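Board notes, transcribed. Complex of a protein with 2-acetamido-2-deoxy-beta-D-glucopyranose.
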Amino acid sequence: MQAVENIQKVLSELDPCKLKVLALSSVGVGGLLCYLAWRRQPKKIPFGDGWWRVGEKPFAEDRTIRPFVVETSEDVIQDLYERIDRMRYTDSLEDARFHYGFNSTHLKKVASYWRHEFDWGKQVKVLNKYPHFKTNIEGLDVHFIHVKPVQRAGQKVLPLMLVHGWPGSFFEFYKIIPMLTKTDGDFVFEVICPSIPGYGYSEASQVQGFTAIAAARIFHKLMDRLEFTDYYIQGGDWGAFITTIMALIKPECVRGLHLNMVNARAGGVKAVISLLLGRYFPFLVGFTREDVCRMYPFMQKNVYELLRESGYMHIQATKPDTAGCGLNDSPVGLAAYILEKFSSWTDFKNRNLEDGGLERKYSLDDLLTNIMIYWTTGSIIPSMRFYKENMGYDFQKIMTNTTKVSVPTGFAAFPHELMHCPWVWASSRFRDLRSFTYMPRGGHFAAFEEPELLAQDVQQFVKKVESRRSK
Ligand SMILES: *[C@@H]1O[C@H](CO)[C@@H](O)[C@H](O)[C@H]1NC(C)=O
Ligand SMILES: *[C@@H]1O[C@H](CO)[C@@H](O)[C@H](O)[C@H]1NC(C)=O
């Protein structure tokens, strides 16, 4: 009773004005709490829809999934040989190595191997060792391989989509697939590995505007068509952009996102301060010692090197069809253009070598198989257009997107990646960063170059996600 009287006394002493303030401020606090709760909710981003052929979208959709076999005709090979034989070379400058681009002495050697020793028929058999399919989504025939696991008693099967980038293809994953579909652990993966529309055996859009957002949506639709409702996704290069967008537009289907390239950065002034202080006082801005090793000297690593390596991007983001003409007409030109990326993006130091260091990490057979996927499908121009669509159309939406990602995320940071992303930046965008690994070696083409390391990292990440789910 005493308490109630006390409260009444207090209330009666409060003047109405003070009461109003009290009421307003409690509304304010309530509102703030609601706002914080709302902010914590992952933002729902529209899923959208598309149609990528000239003309109207038909009423009925063809949802069939057709088996597909990579085939090759003798005509294509004859034509290829004639073109290789007709190649006009220009001597490289003395001691130019790979600094001006592909050294022409070495290019002749690659072309000669391609012409006289490379066995495309044999590589086609390699390509067909996994089952391929095509299905039509948003008007495009989408190609993918689908590898069922070797399941042991008690093992859980987890679907995993692997997404490639440029200038790669689904073939980049051929060595890592068996490491994921056959494991000793508690789980094993069922791998789905699509070709981005316009790349390899996936049909290219006939109309403008085919971005990573469209690719992300199409890949979700593909998983839905395969009756998967809950899956892991993995990617580097464009694959990292696409899978990140997948996690934004349909997070409820993404059990975990694993990346070997991260698109995250600190905002304007904060980034400048971090970078200025980071070298000398890394602890102040949250950089680790390893981050500092990988990021500095800053101008050298993040400005000069990137300028040196990104000329292709400016061309592809502006006039892809012009430069693409020559590449689509000359197989040796195409090989030089693509293989030079495999050289320097694996390790910048490869520019100092006459052979670009290509065969230190890859076999010529594997490298040329990737080239053949571009050559035989004529997909270099559509693959280059993807830059224009993503960078020209809405830069904010794709390239500098900072929308927070809520799904469990794992990041394998390879030391020779084009640009290092420190943990603090990655964790500010990927709100549930479950694993961040400084990988001991390897560059931009992680799956192709270091399949074992990448497979291990994917597995330890998935193990973390699964063990927390089962708790
Ligand atoms: C590269 O190629 C040219 C001839 O095409 C040659 O003169 C040059 O010395 C080569 N080697 C190196 C290490 O640059
Ligand atoms: C980031 O990407 C998503 C998914 O495509 C998009 O809906 C969103 O608008 C983008 N955010 C910005 C700031 O552009």
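The pocket of 2-acetamido-2-deoxy-beta-D-glucopyranose (ligand 1) is lined by residues 91-92, 94-97, 103-105, 354 (CB under 6 Å). The two ends are 47 Å apart (CA to CA).
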